[in-house]
Amino acid sequence: MKDDVVALAAELVGISSLTGNEGPIVELVSKRLIKDGWNVTLQEVSPGRANIWASRAGGGVCFSTHLDTVPPFLPPRKEKGKLFGRGSSDAKGIAAAMLVAADRLVKSGEDRVDLLFVVGEEKGSDGARAANNLSATSRFLINGEPTESKLASGAKGSLRATLRTRGRAAHSAYPHLGQSAIEPLLELLPTLRSVNWPKDATLGDTTVNIGVIHGGSEANIIPEHAEAELMFRLVSDVEEVKSKLVEWVDGRAEIEYGSYIPSQYFHTVEGFETGPVAYTSDIPLLSAWGTPLLFGPGSIHVAHTPDEFVPVDELRASVDVYERLARSLLAE
Question: Which one of 114, 193, 235, 325 has the lowest number of neighbouring Cβ atoms within 10 Å?
Answer without folding.
Answer: 193
